[in-house]
Fold each of these.
Amino acid sequence: LGALAVGGGVYDVVNLNNAATGAKVYWDDSNNKVTTVSTNNAVFGWIVASGGGGANSTAKAMHAPYHGNA
């Protein structure tokens, strides 16, 4: 089923493709992970800590889906 987030807050997320801290990320619903790939994925927010730890590592991401320039 996955998890429900209503916007805002910092979450521990699985970083699909090694996004660096500060990178804009998108939610990949097929893999239930954040990614830097925008195609067919919804804006999630930014990596705010522990980015760049390798593919499929855990990072902290600010959930900000309603900011058009997220």
Amino acid sequence: ALEGNIKVITYDIAEESRIPVIVNKMKARGTMLVLGPIFSSNAQTIIQQIAPYGMTMITLSNNPLLASQKD
């Protein structure tokens, strides 16, 4: 059985320069799962930045290279 609360929070990462700020916000909130983004260039940047914090990302990109990345 799942226990606890699930919160869905959205972030606008149209500007790639905002990604480090958003990753810090996610870290501060104790984020464990990231859904998205759609664009593989943004996904690649986020993967690199969230990996040290143990966050998991399910990207919405159709780029198969992203699916095969492992820590």
Amino acid sequence: FIQIPHMVWNADIMLEALGDSSVNIHVFVWYPKDDWSQAQPILLATLKRALDNAAIEIPFPQRVIWSGKD
């Protein structure tokens, strides 16, 4: 359940896939299409804040390249 001032959404959250260096989740919400461009950034910021509050990090993918020398 996500609450945003003046907006309330019931979200369905689904684990889509386990990637090489990711966990892909989908969040499904209903909101009127006419206001979506204003609501989307608020929703993304709210989801990010929820992940931060739960101590769930989104790491930057890193790769180590070794040339075989040394």
